[in-house]
Amino acid sequence: MSTEQHARGPHPTVQDVVDAADSLWPFRLQESWDASGLVTGRPGRTVTHIHFAVDPVDAVVREALDSGADMLLTHHPLLLRGVTSVTAGGFKGKAIHDLIENSCALLCCHTNADAARRGVSDALIAACGVNPDDAAPLVPDDADPRTGLGRVGTLDEAVTLRELAERLAARIPQGVQGLRVAGDSHRPVSTVAVCGGSGDSLFDEVRAHGADVYVTADLRHHPASEARERALGPGGHGSPALIDATHWGSEAAWLPWAAEDLQRALAARGFHVETSVSELRTDPWDFRVEAPQD
User: Fold this and answer.
1) Which residue stretches of 83-237 are H helix?
2) Number of domains in the chain
3) Long-range contacts made by residues 140-147, C-beta under 8 angstroms, separation at least 24?
4) 11 a known binding residue?
5) Pair (63, 132) in one structural domain
6) How far apart are CA 278 and CA 288, in angstroms?
7) Overall pTM surpassing 0.90 (yes/no)
8) InterPro entries from the xrefs (predicted)?
9) Is 76 annotated as a binding residue?
10) Is residue 289 in some structural domain?
11) Contact 255, 277 (CB under 8 A)
């Protein structure tokens, strides 16, 4: 071991990283249907470099390996649904083979990172301009009400709906979709609710908190249409307005936080590790076509 490595501390093992991740984003917080946790990697193998990304797709695996990473930490699980084969002829099997053959572990932190403090939704509400320390979960965890799905909080100063959308567009990664917005662009908004990723199951909680605007992703036509009708109908008071980001973009804002927090947590345990954050856009859409102008 080099003198520099002695000064910085030893490298952690795969299990050390899993334990540190569990301290930040407890795996017990994951939803019952989720598959967060260690996917590949020997627990005792040394980790020198962790690469962070949203999706464990082929390009990300290649990016991690090219960077010299021996652990890839992704938000989305690789094996969320059951599989009967991991042959390298399939894209999931190929990812597993490439990772194992290059001694790169894969750790997934999905809905546990959604629910935890300084997780995905905290990063998203911070991008809106709300101090995440002052935000509350939309759906608090029974055991720890400081954690849970989504966040709701209040801006220091009200802004228009358009100003909030423009702020978000500048602060979170963008796909070709951009941001879709439902509501009067000039209306003032102050109370903001967010849920990184697909959040149209939380409309009732958003309304119960009296949010002026709801920022999430993957809004389907019928839930969004019904939410809009309820907002604009009798007694609706025009709330909440909707800002629909890309699924990937709403979650990618968390990656720099995750890299910093995990590196710090390992340092507190006496370990040194390098980190890097993916620069790839893994939103699945490549381009959009505008309607022709008359």
Assistant:
1) 91-101, 111-115, 120-128, 161-171, 203-208, 221-232
2) 2
3) 141/29, 141/115, 143/28, 146/117, 147/26, 147/29, 147/115, 147/116, 147/117
4) no
5) no
6) 24
7) yes
8) DUF34/NIF3, DUF34/NIF3_sf
9) yes
10) no
11) yes
User: Would you say residue 292 lies in a domain?
Assistant: no
Parent domain of 42: 3-113+254-277
Task: Give residues with Cβ within 8 angstroms of 260, minimum separation 6.
Answer: 275
Instruction: Give the separation between CA 214 and CA 232, rounded to whole angstroms.
Output: 15
Is 247 labelled as part of a ligand binding site?
yes
Is residue 287 situated within a structural domain?
Answer: no
For residues 67 and 169, state if they share a domain. no
CA gap 119, 146 in Å, rounded = 12
Question: Rounded CA gap, 56 and 104, in Å?
Answer: 12
How many CA atoms, within 13 angstroms, populate the side-chain half-sphere of residue 241? 23
Residue-level pLDDT at 237:
60
- Residue 237 DSSP symbol: T
- Residue 48 sits in a domain whose CATH number is 3.40.1390.30
Residue pointed to by tokens 């389907």: 220
Residue 238 has pLDDT above 70, yes or no: no
- Say how far apart CA 97 and CA 95 lie, in whole Å: 6
Q: Report the C-alpha gap between 238 and 90 in whole angstroms.
A: 48
Residue 115 has pLDDT above 90, yes or no: yes
